[in-house]
Sequence to fold (471 residues):
Amino acid sequence: MFDNKIKNICCIGAGYVGGPTMAVFANHCPYIKITVTDINESRINAWNDSDTSNLPIYEPGLDTLISLYRNKNLFFTTNIKESISNADLIFLSVNTPTKTKGIGAGKASDLKWIEASARQIAKFSKGHTIVVEKSTLPVRTAKTIENILSESQEIDNNEEKKTFSVLSNPEFLSEGNAINDLEKPDRVLIGGEDKYAMNSLVDLYLNWVPKEKIILTNIWSSELSKLTANAFLAQRISSINAISALCEATGADIKQVSKAIGMDSRIGNKFLFPGPGFGGSCFQKDILNLVYLCEYYNLHEVAAYWEEVVNINNWQKDRIFKLIVLKLFGTVFGKKLAIFGFSFKANTNDTRNSASIKICRNLIDEGAILSIYDPKVDNNQIEKDLNLSLNETSSREKMLWSRANSIQSAVEDCHAVIILTEWEEFKNISWTKLIKKMKRPAWIFDTRSVVDVLKAEQAGFNIWQIGNYTS
Ligand code: UDX
Ligand code: ADP
Fold:
C-alpha cells in the first residue's frame, strides 16, 4: 500500500486543457507542487512570460491565476525527465488529433503523442505513479497506456520497482469559459479499477468540488461518457442548424423556435444557438472516434447515425458559403469582403476546426479578397489555417487576404460583412457609421444572430441572418 497523499503533480502538455486545468488545481491545492511540461519550448516560454498578455492561449480569468501561482506552486518547464521523476501523479494532456494517414485515417485519433508520453513516463518515473488520462481518447486507450507502462520500463539495478495505476478523468471544460467550468464543474468523472489511486484523485478534487459531483465509474464507462457527451452536444447543434435552414425557407424564426422548444424542461434551453457549424478540437474528432468504434464492432447503422451529425455540420458551412456568393449577384470575384471573427467561438484564440477556415478558404477560391478581423487570432495562425501566406498574391496582383486591426478598418471598400464568431464587440456596432465606408449595395451575413436586423436595415444594409426568412 502507498501513501495516497499527492505532493507532486506533473501535467504533460501545456495546451488549452493542461494550462487552465493546472492553474485551477494550483488555486485550490496550495501545498502541492504542480509542474506543467511540454516539448514545445516556445509555448513554455510564453507560459513563463512576465507579461501575461503573451500567454500562449487566451482564456478569460487565466492571466490572473497565472500571475498568482506561477513560480509559487505552479511551474512551466521543458524538463520532462525531472517533472516525471518527481511526480506522484501525472496528467496526460497531450493532443490527439484525427489521423490523417494510415489505418483509420480521417476517423481514428492519432495516439502517437500519447504513446510517446507513456514511454517517457515508463522511462523516467520512480516508485508508484498514478497516470491520469485527461485528453479525450478513444475508448480502451487506458489499456494501451497500461501495456506501454508495464512493458517498456527501464529500471536501474538499485532502483525500486516501478508501479502504475491508470485512471481516466476526462475534461469537460469548454473554451472561453474554461476557468468557470473548472471552478464549478457540473461533475467530475473518474474511471478506474484501483481504489487507492481513485481516492487520491478524489481527495484532490474535494479541495473545491462537492462530493456529490464526483462520479466514480469503471474506466470504459468514463472514456465512453466523454465521447458520448460531446456527441450529444454536437448533435444538438447539427439539429438546430438543420432547422435553421428550414426556418429560412418557410418563414419561421429560429430564435422563436429555439425558445419554444428550449422551454420544454426535457430539452432545456442550452446549446440551441444556430451558427456556421461547430468547430473546436473536440466535437468532430470525438464523433469520428465514436463512428470508428461502432464500425469496429460492426454496428454500421449506429456509425452512420452519428456520422450524419458531422455531415450536417459540413453541409452548414458549405450552404453558408454558397448563399453568400448567390446573394452577391452570383459572384464574389475581385470583391472585398470583411470577415468578423476567425476563432471557432468567442473568448478564445483557438481556431481548430473553426467554421471560418472553410468558409474563408472557399470564398478566396471563388476569387474574393478577404479583410479578416478577430480580436484574438493573429496573422500567423490565419496564415497557417488558410494555408496561404499573407504575401501570396493572386494573378490580379492583389492580396488574397489581410488582417485588419479593427472593425472600422476591416470594412473599407467591402461589399459585405460576414459575421462568423459571436465576439461581444460585434453585438453593438454602429451600422450607420460603418456603411459609409462600404460599397453599395452593402450586405451583412450574420451567422451568429448578433445583429439587430431592423437597425441594420435602417442603416441601409441588406441583411441575411441565420434562421430568418428572407425573400
Ligand atoms: C466542447 C464541450 O462543450 C466540452 O465539454 C468538451 O470538454 C470540449 O468540447 P468547446 O469545443 O471548447 O467544448 O466549446 P463549445 O462551447 O462546446 O462549442 C463548440 C462549438 O459549437 C463552437 O464552434 C460553438 O460556436 C458551437 N456552438 C455551441 C453552436 O454553434 N451553438 C451552440 O448553441 C453552442
Ligand atoms: P489540448 O486542447 O488537448 O490541450 P493542445 O494542442 O492545445 O491540445 O495541447 C497539447 C500540448 O501537448 C501541445 O502543447 C504539445 O506540444 C504537447 N505535447 C504533445 N506531445 C508531447 C510529449 N510527448 N511531451 C510533452 N508535451 C507534448
The chain is about 40% helix and 15% strand. The chain has a mean pLDDT of 94.
